[in-house]
Amino acid sequence: MELNQLPATVLTRTISRPNTTIYYPQLAGLANQQAEKDINRAIHQTVQGLIHEQQRVQVPGNTQMQGSYEIKTNERGIFSVVLNNYAYTPQMAHGMTFLGSITADIQTGKLYTLRELFKPGSDYVKVISENIKRQIKERSIPTLNGFTSIKPDQDYYLADKALVIYFQLYEITPYYVGFPMFPISVYELEPLINEKGPLAILSAD
Asked: Where is the Deacetylase PdaC domain (predicted)?
């Protein structure tokens, strides 16, 4: 794996219809065209999934919807992006936002679940959960029913040599807290990480 892999070229696409404007990224010019198709399809499916999630929670009415994205990593052949969807229907107490994220290898097109970042059989759920418990205490983050554990497929993204675990609104905290985000240094997780996966690539010298 070449560590000097050039960043992927990212184009912005738009879904535009009455009361709805959603911007999302599409990769272009990848050496592996199948990888490009696979990653772009996954991004588009995630965008559509966020739209459907909003339709599930919004009351009938004149719903306003906006979507955006933020690229968190685009180096060493690893691409990690967070997709944001905000919607509000008048008469509701407040708007609702959902996040989605994708982490992929731009050379192969492989999309990584949280589990796949780590060695098979490793106790990554426990290690990450204990780290989050510590951060909740240190940062005095209010929780709804206390925090016990992440899900094996918990939402995450990669940024600045860190794994960032995040939770949806209301998942573990009151709405006013926003999205609880928990960065964990790659180096803290080193004994557990998949040696051919994105964490190993990003932490290599």
From this structure: 21-97
Average pLDDT of the chain, as a whole number: 95
User: Across the chain, where does the E strand assignment appear?
Assistant: 9-17, 20-28, 64-75, 78-88, 96-105, 156-159, 162-166, 181-185
- What is the fold of 113-204? Actin; Chain A, domain 4 (3.90.640)
The one-letter amino acid at 160: D
Intervals of the chain under pLDDT 70: 1-4
Topology of domain 1-111 in CATH is Heat Shock Protein 90 (3.30.565)
Measured CA to CA, the distance from residue 186 to residue 202 in angstroms comes to: 8
Tell me which residue has tokens 């964990």: 184
